[in-house]
Fold USG protein.
Amino acid sequence: MTNDNVPKELIENFKNNQGVFFIGAGLSIAAGYPTWDGLIGELIAEAEKVTWIPREKTDEYKKLVGDSSKFLFLAEELRVELGSHFTKYMENRFQFTSHKHTQNHELIVKTASSLVVTINYDDLIEQAYNSVYKSYPNAFIYSQSREAANNFWKNRFFILKAHGDAKRDIDTLILSQKDYRKTLYREPGYRSLLQSIFTTKSIFFVGVSLNDPEFNQLLDFLHDSYHGGGPTHFLLIEKQKNMETLSRRYFDDFNIQTITYDNSRGDYSELTKVLEFLHLSAPRKESI
């Protein structure tokens, strides 16, 4: 199997244990989880059901949801307005579920890498690892930076759940700009760990959208930290959704090279082919 879209540099990075997967919400869609805008839409629907939020407010939410730059604002607003109903909904959506991992998750854990970073709240990567290796990997959230850093420097495989873990506790989830500020600027160990990962490893972003507010918030912080230096990173994105201006900005500002795949059929089969090609080119020899 060959794939001309996959840069040789990316393959060599994973062969040499210098590659790291960074997983976004797009990879969880096939398992039944929502995208960022999908989640906001679901929360607005919940706001329409309760009696204490006026119709005028939910109408405003609907107008704002079309602007991806307002997602973090809306998430915080909905969390405050929904109160305990928000916690209950998020528990039912992410914690008390039976969603199963996909082939793509298994391909990722079967590829040579000592680390997977995910901004998703689900446990699909852990499921896939257990399915392949019959054991669960170490998984840490942002408040466990010491344990995560210890695994990182000892080259032990682990999952960094950068925005919290719904299975562990809904209260750990990073959902708003306030959450980001608190985590990135009040958790110096976590901040240092992210800086180390991005300056010593080549990051392969999968399932991340160019207008993903979480993704762009993180990139802005990291750019202030390392000014786009270090190894080249790679972003896998649908050809149909690629924007040349943003791609150029990502490369110039963050040293991120865009890799496109055709999804005209809408089944993401070409994405799977890219992950399969990378796995076959740089297979994990054994569980770490």
Summary: The two ends are 26 Å apart (CA to CA). The chain has two domains: 8-32+100-281, 36-95.
